[in-house]
Amino acid sequence: MSQYAITNLGWVLAAGTGSGKPLLTDAGLAKWQAGDDAALADFSAKPYLNSVKGYLDPAGSYCLAACSLALGKREAAVRELSGIVSVSRYGAPLSARKFHEQFAEKGPRFASPLIFPHGYANTAGNLAAIEFGFAGPHLVLQGRQDVREALDLALQRLENSEADEMLVAAYEATDEISLPDGMAARNGAIALRLAATAAEPLLALDRNQLWALPAPDLETGTVSALLDLLRALAGK
């Protein structure tokens, strides 16, 4: 089975925003508790994007910024062999609720059409594909699936040469109103770039290695689950 390389990481977390290896080694980035997400309340993806967005759900903001950080500065171009897999447990409930409230209070003629499409779980990943010119394989996962499925799908696309690079992005942007009583989710986003080779990979990865690890806990969402998985792969 072929081995591939995680060449870079990008993240937007309550504990900080950045790229590269620190996500695997900095214990402070791994820490989280309910209430920490308030630090992301004013986060804007604007500094990380070339395009201008009239409206973005926090899910889209976190996801786009994390993908931008994972990719680094690159020339704008359509990449036919670049693909993306995005995964979220909760999707984008804040915009979905906001649109529903406008619909109920103002009626269908006056509810904002800008907000409506940002309430879908697939919008964040789709926006990332458009923003960064990823015209290859594209899949959105939403729900309680194991986050390893997203990585496995990306590795399969590399193995069968449908892509020569893949982004995998996990994101969450929810609140206590959208969650069952007593539950909390870690908001933010983590994105990683997978490629066939790299001079100095952050991590090597193959499908056997991936599925040999214990399933990460999804209780607090896909961002926590992916972070735990990456640190397990790095032996942290």
Give a brief description.
This protein is of the alpha/beta class. It has eight helices and seven strands. The longest helix has 14 residues, at 58-71.
SSE topology:
Elements: E1 4-13, E2 16-19, H1 22-25, H2 27-30, H3 58-71, E3 82-88, H4 93-106, H5 123-131, E4 138-142, H6 148-159, E5 165-172, E6 188-195, E7 203-205, H7 207-212, H8 222-233
Parallel strand pairs: 3-4, 3-5
Antiparallel strand pairs: 1-2, 1-6, 1-7, 5-6
Helix pairs in contact: 3-5
Please give the count of helices.
Answer: 8
From the alpha carbons, calculate the radius of gyration and give it in angstroms. Answer: 17 Å
Largest sheet: 7 strands, mixed
Helix content: 25-40%
Beta-strand percent range: 15-25%
Mean pLDDT: 90
Q: Give unreliable regions as ranges.
A: none
Query: What pattern of helices and strands is seen along the backbone?
Result: EEHHHEHHEHEEEHH
The CA-CA distance between the termini, in Å, is 24 Å
Annotation keywords:
alpha/beta; 7 strands; globular
Question: What do you see in this structure?
Answer:
By secondary structure, the protein is an alpha/beta fold. The chain has 8 helices and 7 strands. Strands 1, 2, 3, 4, 5, 6 and 7 form a 7-stranded mixed sheet that branches. Strand 1 and strand 2 (about 15-20) form a beta hairpin. It is globular. The model has no long low-confidence stretch (mean pLDDT about 90).
